[in-house]
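Duplicate of earlier report; Myotubularin phosphatase domain-containing protein input re-posted below.
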Amino acid sequence: MPDVACLNLTTLWKLQMCHFSTFKQCEEWLKRLNRAIAHPARLEELFALAYHAWCLGGNTDDEEQHLHLCRPGDHVRHRLEVEVKRMGFDMQNAWRVSDINSNYKLCSSYPQKLLVPVWITDKELESVASFRSWKRIPVVVYRHQRNGAVITRCSQPEISWWGWRNTEDEYLVTSIAKACQLDAGPRACRTRGDGPDSSDSDFDSSLTGCPAPDASGAAQKLLILDARSYTAAVANRAKGGGCECEEYYPNCEVMFMGMANIHSIRNSFQSLRTVCSQIPDPGNWLSALESTRWLQHLSVMLKAASLVCSAVEREGRPVLVHCSDGWDRTPQIVALAKILLDPFYRTIEVNVKKKNHLVN
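Output:
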């Protein structure tokens, strides 16, 4: 009777048992599987790069070719120009594209071209970068085409327990609202006009109870949406961080969302995976799902994105979003708000190819 070898595999939380006639066959397949799932030793071994090189008929060991593939191509720069034009930015009087991050010399996690108010100089941006965590300065990522309100994102200010201030940072944040006032869309112009036509904002406000855009011509009050809780934001001062003080940022309002940090989200997701991988118990499954707090995290995320949408769409207010370091929670809120606000971001092409058009 031949020897029978057994190999146990775990796939999608299920145990798969494979039988082989000999131990040698079992050992050979184990080696093949280990090679298939092993981490690549070199960048060139990644399937995407190897396949691209194969399509071009080149050598997969050509290091220069792979480095070229990792650099942003003309399509990335062209996409920025298309987006700026599509959203109707006034690049003469209100906004400009700064090249201060060329070759990622200012912030390694930001794109090379940044959209800022036209009167903000690169020297002022350098000063702001020294005051923001990971040098992630406030930059514009979206503009409402009808009322001119924008969404900006950044990281926390480095106030610390000493209560440090940065006049350039305060100037940049308040300048965002001023630039929106100068680059108001057609809806805002109709609201300020004397004509008898009613605006869309009046209609929206009558249904939602939200105030219409200010018809006096004054800059709208900028909403600073901090994804953290107030307690967490203050606690970050012990590590050199903090949050904006409304006293130093005139015409701004700070709102805290109380979203959990990445560590709590990771633990919640692991608990969710555990619940989903077990045999469901109809009597306790919903309570087990609730105990993971995953639905609560999703609820807070949706609430934050809805607040951004309400401020931009119904009130015509510019919004600045950040958390501690300006990633994880910040791009999630901004990206979801853009999907809710603009049908352009709900197309298949955009959702597959683009994460965030102006800032990654």
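Residues 101 and 108 are 8 Å apart (CA to CA).

Merging into the original ticket.
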